[in-house]
Amino acid sequence: MAQSLHRMESVKDQAIVPLPVESWRPPPAAAMDAQAALENGRVLYCPALQFRLENNELRYLDASYSDARRKSIYIRADRAGLFGCDASEAEQRELLGLLKRFEASSMALLGALFPGYVEQMRAVGTSYRPRPTGTGDAALSWRKDDTRLHVDAFPSNPTQGLRILRVFSNIGTEPRIWRVGEPFERMAQHFLAKIPEPRPLLAKLLHTFGITKRTRSAYDHYMLYLHDLAKADLAYQRDSEQVTFAFPPASAWICFSDQVMHAAMSGQFMLEQTVHLPQAALAFPNESPLAVLERLTARKLL
Ligand code: SIN
Ligand code: FE
User: Fold this and answer.
1) What pairs with residue 245 in β-bridges?
2) Which protein residues have a CB closer than 5 Å to ligand 2 (ion)?
3) Which of 116, 128, 218, 228 gives a 20 to 30 Å CA spacing to 85?
4) Are 72 and 268 in contact (CB under 8 A)?
């Protein structure tokens, strides 16, 4: 996998990197090649990593448990409770247990693979997506449409430079089909000239009025524009370099979703863990979206 340290030459052959782990708690062994690939913007694909549901949990493989207006049932590290769910109290308790178990498994996996992250990584939320991709919110608004290639960046939730690391598990019976796009730097070069100057005063107001959870930094400003410009550009969606990949049932995958251009085209029933990681924990900080954007704009963005 030594090639993973180098620039991605071909999205088709190199965007998805297989990782042969079979347990959510593998023996700790620093997977430096895998970490280099991950930080370089590849998707680590674990074909033999199944997340097993208990017998009593199988009935939750049913879209009707989710609130019709949301795409997921979720928990957050900073708020107690289960959100986005239409179910009895007893069922909500079981679903909460399921999400907590996926959180613990995901954190154990990341910790075993990437010991250098352990001290600084923080679980921020876990979601269960029981609806077919492209339905709900996505059908109403292009900004929320995750069937369009994008990097993750959220208007109300600026990260101020924290990386967004995600673990996904397909717990359904159909493949989850993704498109994975061109390397972050090439995408950023494509859209950069269309991004207006950051507006610090506006950012301050948005935070004061509680519209954003933290102040939107210049970095968050660029990330949000990249998210929106890519999703709004149908020619880019169609013509940019990309590969389609099917994550089969009972597989898992890991990526920095603030860096990997991704789009979920079909599939149903997926678990997802979101982790925040500071830049300081990265082994290859020069590969991060922050470093790329600071190089391209020739300025500090945090
Ligand atoms: C996304 O994070 O954009 C969608 C991932 C998925 O639903 O498979
Ligand atoms: Fe996304």
Assistant:
1) 178
2) 152
3) 228
4) no
The pLDDT confidence band at residue 4, using thresholds 50, 70 and 90, is very low
Q: Where does the chain have alpha helices with state H?
A: 11-14, 32-39, 89-113, 137-140, 184-191, 200-208, 218-232, 234-239, 289-297
Structural domain that includes position 41: 16-297
The H or E element spanning position 83 is strand 79-83
Q: Which ligand 1 atom lies nearest to the CA of residue 178?
A: 8
What's the gap in Å between 90 CA and the centre of ligand 2? 31
Closest atom of ligand 1 relative to the 263 alpha carbon: 3
15-74, pLDDT tens digit by residue? 999 999 999 999 877 788 999 999 999 999 999 999 999 999 999 999 999 887 788 999
The pTM of this model reads 0.96
CATH of the domain at 121: 2.60.120
For residue 166, report the distance from its CA to the centre of ligand 2, in Å. 10
Q: Cα–Cα distance between 187 and 229 in angstroms, integer?
A: 10
Q: Does a structural domain hold residue 153? A: yes
Domain membership flag for residue 267? yes
